[in-house]
Design goal:
This protein has helices spanning about 1-30, 35-40, 50-65, 80-95, 125-150, 155-160, and strands at about 110-115, 120-125. The protein is mainly α. It has one domain (about 1-160): dinb family like domain (Four Helix Bundle (Hemerythrin (Met), subunit A)). It has a two-stranded antiparallel sheet with strand order 1-2. The longest helix is centred in the N-terminal third of the chain and has 29 residues, at about 1-30.
Length: about 160
């Protein structure tokens, strides 16, 4: 479970951080105010780019903690710059890095209690990871990537996937 969660989250958060670097460089090269990209959305009823990054970090960090049987750490949603978002990613990766494989003993069977959409839910750890946390995480990572691509940042599949 540690490899299926922490290793995956870490790789894609590292790729997301690298994509933020490319977005920041793109803004500088094209004389675009960073706030334009940070506030960009794919559609008016969707969350802005900065919020997509925050939520990707949240699903990774909180999911990891819950699988390890620990109360998740809360991260305030105060980031307004590329640098602050990169710090958020770094903090989430550091937090997850504090968990060891042995912290995930029995994680697949552990009953995970969490709130989603105003409801209290309980899932076995394997289902929590496979059918809730990973899909949520990848939705927000993918949406962040798509917002950058939609706004002209030159990214490709390798940028999304991160280093092998």
């Amino acid at each position: 479970m540690h490899r299926r969660s922490v290793a995956v989250f870490d790789r894609f958060l590292a790729a997301l951080a690298a994509n933020l670097d490319k977005a920041e460089a793109y803004c500088e090269a094209k004389k675009i105010k960073p706030e334009v990209i940070l506030a960009a959305r794919l559609f008016p009823d969707m969350l802005a780019f900065a919020r997509q990054v925050q939520l990707a970090c949240d699903f990774a960090a909180r999911g990891t903690a819950r699988l390890a049987g620990v109360e998740p750490k809360s991260f305030p949603d105060t980031e307004t710059t590329f640098a602050e978002l990169k710090d958020r990613i770094s903090a989430a990766r550091g937090y997850m890095g504090g968990f060891q494989a042995e912290d995930f003993a029995h994680a697949a069977e552990r009953q995970i209690h969490f709130k989603a959409g105003g409801r209290e839910l309980v899932l076995p750890g394997d289902d929590f990871l496979s059918f809730y946390t990973l899909p949520q995480f990848f939705f927000h990572v993918t949406t962040a990537y798509d917002i950058l691509r939609h706004n002209g940042v030159e990214l490709g599949k390798r940028d999304y996937m991160g280093a092998p």
